[in-house]
Amino acid sequence: MKETLWRHLFLFLLISGLLLFIVTAFSGGISDPDTWWHLAAGKYIVQTRSVPHADPFSWTVAGKPWVTHEWLAEVLLYLAYAAGQFWGVLSFLLAVASVLFLLYWRLLTTAKGPFFVAALVLLITGEMLYPFLELRPQVFSYVLCVAFLYLLHCYEQGKNRLFLLPLLTALWANNHGSFFLGPALLLLYTCCGLVPLRHEKLVNRRLDKMALARLLLVLALCVAAAALTPNGGKLLVYPFSTIGASEMMDNIQEWLSPDFHNPYNQLFLVYYLGTFLLLLLTPQRIRLFDLVLFLLCGAAAFTHARFIAYALLVNGLLWANYYRPALRWKTQLKGAVKYALLPALLALYAVILAGRMPPQDPVDYRFADPQEYPVKALAYLKEHPLKGKMLNYYGWGGYLIWNRAGEKVFIDGRADVYLPKVFDDYRRITHLAPEAPALLEAYGIDYVFMPAAAALVQALRFSPDWETYYADQTAVILVKKKGGASRAR
């Protein structure tokens, strides 16, 4: 076969392997706690045919304004579930990931570097992205970020497709709150274009007045397009109000700085420093836009772990653009090796999938790791229901919303909805602050649904006012005596 055909085959096998890696990540069921309430939100929107602007899921902030900025992705996620339960939502994720990998490959190959470098970058980036490729709307933001970078590169090469950017911004704004990153990329590109630079290490092409006016017009259209959502102009300030919420920034794991005791974060640090060395040592001149983008993404990733994914995408692009190995690898395969490659890899993929096949249950309370989620406790509650005001664990809120339809939660993963009072009160109660007993009384808590190891559980077990209703190694349900939770019949 021709070499081009074999390269296409290799790319197919490479992307198939990355998708397989995503599939095997669900061998224990759904692990992301936000997936559940996203599904519930999508179900609510589909069934009511309206986007909620007030909280419908909790009893603590019922009716409080809620900016449902991910509504479109949530609808698509729920429709995928309705079509095929777990395999429907997994197929949905794999389809989005496939678009991401193909578009990213297209971006990598614009550098016209060696084929094996682009393939290796795609493999490394795809493998490192897997913790972020979850069943949640955030996956759309990675696709749209790459699309913005690709269209800006096209413009740099004289292909003006800027008219697509406002359309992509509107799509992004209806899927995820990170939509501001798109206009931010355009603004960064425009600002860099104001700086004439020709240095032995850095280079930058200054924009003429016509190009500058065109970019500023497109930027204005992008900002206006971000308001084309059910939330209107409120969405324009939503991301900044979220980032400015110190309670959330200081207590939600994905908003914290990366923990470098974690091997994954150590690997990311090595990758980032390696990219930094690449930029120092490459004989090629570095575009100012590339350098500033690398530094900004690094600063964001080292400040908030959730931005590591964007830094990975940028790092990979820089390797494709600036790494030119002295050795020339031969990509041609000979003889029987060519014809054995496809069946051998497919057989390997089949063995891996057989060993780490996801559960066949539908997406309900059983589709989760019983050591992380209260699977057995929830099964018991279904047989022996409780009624009353529940205080639940933050990480289980979405799980309970999806699997206990009609029962309101105290709190869930939508931290912005519960700020500042309920979120702060939850922390004070669960951290056994001096005012915790008074807060339990003030909220009128009838029963507590918490992890077995929670400090609050240990404290209430010694209280004469509380009794254990259910307990296993993962979860404990405690009921308040004397007029507490009622046992539904």
Describe it.
The chain is of the alpha/beta class and 489 residues long. The termini are far apart. The strands form three sheets. A four-stranded mixed beta sheet has the order 5-6-8-7. Strands 1-2-3 form a three-stranded mixed beta sheet. The mean pLDDT is 89. Helices cover 57% and strands 6% of the residues. Helix 3 (71-108) crosses helix 5 (138-156), helix 12 packs antiparallel against helix 13 (308-322) and helix 18 crosses helix 19.
Percent of residues in helical segments?
A: 55-70%
Quote the average pLDDT: 89
Strand fraction equals: 5-15%
Radius of gyration from the alpha-carbon trace, in angstroms? 25 Å
Order of helices and strands: HHHHHHHEEHHHHEHHHHEEHHHHEHEEE
Tally of DSSP helical segments:
20
Shape: globular
N-end to C-end Cα span: 70 Å
Q: What's the count of strands?
A: 9
**Computed structural class:** alpha/beta
Point out poorly predicted stretches: none
Query: Which strands sit side by side, in order, in the main sheet?
Result: 5-6-8-7
Sketch the major β-sheet.
4 strands, mixed
